Amino acid sequence: MKVFKNKKIYTYQETFRTAVCFFNGLRFIKQAKQAKAINKPFVERIMLGVTEVNGCTLCSYQHTGIALKAGLTREEIKALLDGELESVNDNEIIGVLFGKHVADQRGLFDKEAYDRMVKEYGDERALGVLGAVRIIMFTNIIGIMGGVLFDTLTFKNKKLGLFLHELVRLPLFILMMPLAFMTFMALQFTSSERLKLGYKA
Question: Is residue 118 pLDDT above 70, yes or no?
């Protein structure tokens, strides 16, 4: 299992935004899979790339197993978790790089980066990539939160402030999910592409 030293710790506002985007992500990736615009190995490459940027050890463990079942080799998985992209196919590299860009921007992204992906892949596949990114961003936040709490209880984390931040976020996270879902539903009635996709203003 890849153990990351630098985990991204998200603010409460970023956590809420990621939860709202998660529900859109589920819709996007479902549509892309139904259209056969994206497959499981590609999704796993995207998710491993995002997980490397966010530094979620629990997600790296979980998705290593899923990626192996999807046909990725151990060498390719290790390379992706080490931030190396030489093994990624030319027709998938833009999607993996886009996912890393979103994670680096803490859930937001530049519209120009998304437009380039649409030009390369078309709308359905681009939305599938965005959906995969949104789902793994959400699960990374959960994984990092759980990892910090576990590390504190097993005396591996000695940063009290970090522990308290995640301890407070846990009940808030549970409480915010219904509000995040209602926000997602409300956004379905807006004509704003920026709000639906979640790129920078």
Answer: yes
Tell me, yes or no, whether 57 lies in a domain.
yes
Rg (CA), the chain: 17
As a dihedral over the C-alpha atoms of residue 65, residue 123, residue 114, residue 29, rounded to 10 degrees, the angle is -30
| pLDDT tens digits along 31-46 | 999 999 999 999 999 9
Question: What's the pTM?
Answer: 0.91
Question: pLDDT by residue (tens digit) across 169-182?
Answer: 788 888 999 999 99
Q: Is residue 146 part of a domain?
A: no
**Identity of residue 63:** H
Residue 96's CATH number? 1.20.1290.10
Domain count, the chain: 1
Q: Is residue 22 part of a domain?
A: yes
Q: Dihedral of the CA atoms 43, 46, 47, 52 (nearest 10)?
A: 160
What pLDDT is recorded for position 19?
96
Find all residues with CB under 8 Å of 193, minimum gap 6, and list them.
Answer: none
Backbone angles phi, psi at 49, to 5 degrees: -65, -45
Residue 36 belongs to domain spanning? 12-140
